[in-house]
Amino acid sequence: MTTISRRKRRSLTRRTLGWGFGFLTALVLLWIGVVVLLDPDSITSLMASLYGLVGLEGQAAAIAERGLQEGFIRLITVFFAILVGVGGVWFLFTAGNALIEASPSRIRPRLRPWLFILPAAAFLGVYLVFPLVETIRLSITQDGGFLDNYSFVFTDPAMQTAMRNNGLWLVVGTTGSVVIGLLFAALVDRVKREAFAKTFVFLPLAISAVGAAVIWRFVYTWRPPGASQIGMLNAAWTAAGGEPVAFLQTMPWNNFFLILIMIWIQTGFAMVVLSAALKGVPTELVEAGRIDGASEVQLFFRVVLPSIRGALITVATTIFIVILKVFDIVFVMTGGRFETEVIANRMFNEMFRFRNFGRASALAVVLLVAVIPIMVVNIRNLRRQGIGT
Amino acid sequence: MTAVVNARVTLETTEPTTRRRSPFGRFTHNPVVRISVFVIAFFWTLPTAGILISSFRDPNEIRGSGWWSVFAHPFETGQWTLDNYADVLSSAGMGDAFVNSLVVTIPATVIPITIAAFAAFAFAWLRFPGKSILFAIVVALLVVPIQMTLVPLLRLYGDLGLTGNFLGIWLAHTGFGLPLAIYLLYNYISTLPHEIIESAAVDGASPFTTFTRLVLPLSFPALAAFAIFQFLWVWNDLLVALVFLGTGSRTAILTAQLNELVGSRGEDWHLLTAGAFVSMVVPLIVFFALQRYFVRGLLAGSVKG
Q1: ipTM (interface pTM)
Q2: Measured between CA atoms, how close is B158 to chain A, in angstroms?
Q3: Domain extent listing, chain A
Q4: What's the CATH fold of domain A147-384?
């Protein structure tokens, strides 16, 4: 009896020691990592003191004097970044669990769920709930106060242009993506190697808006008359006998050229969802229509379209909200100049460039208010289809 | 919420659909249909092909003639070069930006997915006070546009000295990604067979052990699917990166650096084309290699809700 319990006790001690040692090592590593991340220059002094610690004073002095190579500093930063980012979160959960398991068994069951829920709740509180309330407050109190900020949003001439453009984006961009996506989905349904053909249209969805902007800037690029046109659109236009056009600076058409980029990206999304919906249309329905003598076009508009109504609403509302918040494309292509301003781009400039936090907040609130009704439509639609919360 | 739909539908439907038959029941040999498909696919690819081909052309060639002129003499080796990539990676800073993108994106994917998985497990299988209210809040927060959070967070970060370093942007992306992650993972984890979870509890496993040993491995498809979604989102993001990291050479990520290049070297097409391709290469690899996970993950969990 006694030997067993002694052995048990010894192994317990050893385990506790092991745990404690691991815990301390992890803590030190994480602490160093956070310090390095907050101030990359501290790597130099850290390395110097590390060399000093193992007795290489000469090396330590040399490092302190000359500094480290930029590449080496980057390498260490990357190492600690991944370590802190990936290891840190797991360390915190494991340590929290160890603490709870060490707590009195009476309160343990009640404590346990909070280990799982508190980190998420804290993040949601700090990064979403607090800013939500604060943005509304700032839009009322900052700069010229409520009246000033919101009258700027709705009456300032530049903002009216932005509102008009956003409206244009929403109508043309959403319609364009959905119509082309539906057309392609309906067509591709009928050909061989369907998946292969879809990839080409789906691909832009994986590319960043900045990348897409560069791609299309090259398509639209402009050279003076006489020079060889290296932009596709101008080359085609001049080949057809026209004078070269600076597409991005020609108001108001430049807005359409920007919207085309969004259509290029979002059509893939519309196509994929609608294509799946088309395959869900019952074969019997189509056959019945055929027997009744409907033409293919009639079949499409009378039978197929009504039965994919839910998917159409999902696609349209999703793209609508993406376009409502459009920022990157305008920011990279024109920066909102040449009357191409949109709400989200203006919001970024008010916040980041002019530091008008009140106006920027008012613009954000307008975006939120605009999103909510679309969301309601979307959620209702999902409910009707039996998906969603 | 839309984001959910977006993610879910994308995940469900990118599956190669050839196995399911069209309701029309047969392939067509109608040349109009086949040509239309070809034309749309062709025009959708043309702009990307333009920058890809240009990125391998000599800078003088790019300036001298349109990229399509290479098809007149594709085997003339003198016109092809890799120098654009060497230039854009070193002197134009895209190499550093590539590393920064990795440093931002990997933790900004792992942290939210870990925290969300823990929370989703608690929402699905543990009992605690205020559970349904908390979950309702999570779902409601799906609606909030990121713009709504930027001004207060920018001010908060300014006070805390968190602007311009990686820690700050990981935490920001974590916060923004959480509602969707919790919602999607909840949909999956809550459909795991309750016999498994309960028998683990009967065998004396603590919730922590059940979660790490049982639930996490079982949820792999959902975790992988959300990971890909979040990874691409963070990698392609410009707005959050500009606000919280800025454009300093030490912290600028690919999208921010590419935007810088457009501003400062807007007519140097040899740099812009190669730079754009550098920024696209990882998403393209993910897209082609992992397309299957895009589907599998959320199929099981979120179709029924």
Answers
A1: 0.86
A2: 12
A3: 2-102, 147-384
A4: MetI-like fold (1.10.3720)
